[in-house]
Design goal:
The protein contains 12 helices and 15 strands. With 334 residues, the protein is an alpha/beta fold. The chain has a single domain, classed as NAD(P)-binding Rossmann-like Domain (Rossmann fold, 3-Layer(aba) Sandwich). Strands 3-2-1-4-5-7-12 form a 7-stranded parallel beta sheet, with helices on both faces. α4 links the parallel β4 and β5. α4 packs parallel to α5. The radius of gyration is 20 Å and the shape is globular. The mean pLDDT is 95.
């Protein structure tokens, strides 16, 4: 199997690359950075942007399967930046796939494409897209997902979209570091009553789901043109899990509360201030963060189980141990 992983040097993308290598696949990545360690493992690295059609064509040439993980991630920033990477970039990849008659296109979407700030309890893929979005990230990911699904079958390219929720694990550069930084500054607060449930996804399980979907993405199977929620399959109490993480890193647990309404109001205020001052860094709080941290969002993975045999083989407890081992090694090497 000749595969291309866009964003192959990133958090999820790199795990997909490693699992493909373990299956003896030929792997090429398209990424903004250069990764000599991956080159040493036999990975062909094309350095460039998914916004450059020529670079995308070069990356897609002679490939039969594309895992599209490259994205602009974040809770804040100019809509244009998110739109360019998440929508235009995805269009470029799809156009090249169609031009080169690439057989399979697996899109790394997000559960946030259905989130509108309310509780989602064991939601499944029949959940519609919201009328309004709380962030440019979720809005542009939803737009891109619809492009991917509508492209299914065109020029014989089969497509599907996976929606992992809250990916975490070793080498995470976004969620866990932000939590730890805020905890070190003692700025973390439990939003709401602290009893809300959430699904989470250990990164190796998320990567494996992509490979399983690719194997099943063929004519006659139910996978082409479909979306799939991906999680651990066992929801956690969000703030209990956060405190377990903090204890893992020898940080004080969070005990102070902030009401959900107050958090949302602060999020609105910060967003207005950052927009007025043209600040592009993430605010301390946004509407999306306030809602995500105070509501329940759990998802059914039955469809992924039925259609391509997804099963989260690494438990949350095992994932926590792997995270601890990785952190210990990182501390020893610095």
């Amino acid at each position: 199997m000749k595969t291309l992983v866009t964003g192959g040097g990133g958090f999820l993308g790199r795990y997909i690359v490693e699992q493909l290598l373990a299956q003896q696949a030929q792997v090429r990545i398209l990424a903004r950075g250069h990764y000599p360690d991956l080159v040493q493992q036999g990975v062909e690295c094309i350095q460039g942007s998914i916004l450059d059609p020529r670079t995308v064509d070069r990356a897609c040439h002679d490939i039969d399967t594309v895992f599209h993980c490259a994205a602009k991630v974040g809770v804040w920033g100019p809509f244009k930046d998110f739109y360019e990477t998440n929508v235009i970039g995805t269009q470029n990849i799809l156009h090249s796939c169609q031009a080169f008659h690439i057989r399979r296109f697996i899109y790394s979407s997000s559960s946030s494409v259905t989130y509108e700030g309310k509780d989602q309890i064991m939601a499944d893929e029949t959940l519609p897209y919201p009328k309004t979005f709380l962030s440019p990230y979720s809005q542009t990911k939803a737009h891109a997902e619809q492009l991917v699904l509508s492209a299914n079958g065109k020029n014989n390219v089969l497509t599907c979209a996976l929606r992992p929720h809250l990916i975490w694990g070793p080498r995470d550069t976004y969620i866990i570091p932000r939590l730890l930084t805020q905890a070190q500054k003692r700025k973390l607060r439990i939003i709401g009553d602290g009893k809300n449930l959430t699904d989470i996804t250990y990164v190796e399980n998320a990567a494996r789901a992509h490979l399983l979907a690719a194997e099943a993405l063929k004519s006659g199977s139910p996978v082409p043109g479909n979306t799939y929620f991906i999680t651990q399959g066992k929801p956690v109490v969000l703030w209990e899990w956060v405190n377990e993480l903090l204890k893992l890193f020898d940080l004080p647990i969070v005990t102070k509360h902030l009401s959900a309404n107050m958090a949302y109001a602060l999020g609105v205020g910060f967003e207005k201030m950052y927009a007025l001052l043209h600040l592009h860094t993430d605010p301390p709080l946004t509407r999306l963060i306030a809602k995500q941290l105070s509501t329940t969002h759990t998802y059914s993975i039955q469809k992924a189980k039925d259609h391509f045999g997804y099963d989260p083989i690494i438990s949350t407890a095992e994932g926590m141990q792997r995270l601890l081992i990785y952190d210990s090694k990182e501390r020893q090497s610095t």
